[in-house]
Amino acid sequence: MGEVSGATPSRSDRVPPIARLSPGWPFLLAGLIVVGAVMLVPAWRDVQNVRLERDRLQTVVDYEARRVEATEVMLAALESGDPELERRLIAWQLNLLPAGDVALAREVHAGGVLGWIDDTVEPVAASPPEPTVSRLEWIVSGPARLWVLAFGVLLVFVGLVGFGGSGGDAKPGAIGV
């Protein structure tokens, strides 16, 4: 059959697992993280800006939808012959009060009838503030972006090529091993 060697490696022959790990791995990982940040952070910021603009436009659309609804309610009241609405419209158009009425205060609406409608609609909520720019985002998106990208690529290159093997297998004086 086969011969079984009964010799076990001595403690001095064993190499700890961390010693077998190439010293280039930290450079490779750091380079990949830097390159990933340079590529992904500006795109992430663009997505955040688009979401912010979408939310702002949605509040405007909601406000305008409420204005249209209030206008439709006023038109329905006018078509149904609401006497109070007709009296208000006539008084506004002719700038006259009906006999016996006393003007306590005069409301001036620059928009006329649309000003009345706008007064019935709730105002738009304040828009969210612009997000602040972090230091990482400034570094990977600012004027030094290409330099940071080149540094990340250099780290990847050093991690892949810069270090030889572990050197534990080579014997002193051996050439080409």
Explain the overall architecture.
The protein has 177 residues and is an all-alpha fold. It has one domain (26-161). 59% of the residues lie in helices and 0% in strands. The chain has 6 helices and no strands. Helix 2 packs antiparallel against helix 6. The radius of gyration is 38 Å and the shape is rod-shaped. It starts with 16 loop residues before the first helix and ends in a 15-residue tail after the last helix. 5% of the residues are buried.
Q: State the helicity in percent bands.
A: 55-70%
Oligomer description: single chain
Apparent shape = rod-shaped
Instruction: Tally the structural domains.
Output: 1
Strand content: under 5%
Integer-rounded radius of gyration? 38 Å
Distance between the termini: 34 Å
Element order, helices and strands? HHHHHH
Poorly predicted tracts of residues: 173-177
Mean pLDDT: 79
Q: Indicate the structural class.
A: mainly alpha
Number of helices: 6
Q: What's the β-strand tally?
A: 0
Largest sheet descriptor: none
SSE layout:
Layout: H1 17-20, H2 25-79, H3 83-94, H4 113-120, H5 135-141, H6 145-162
Keywords:
single chain, 177 residues, mainly alpha, 6 helices, 0% strand
Quick synopsis:
The protein has 177 residues and is mostly helical. The chain has helices at 17-20, 25-79, 83-94, 113-120, 135-141, 145-162.
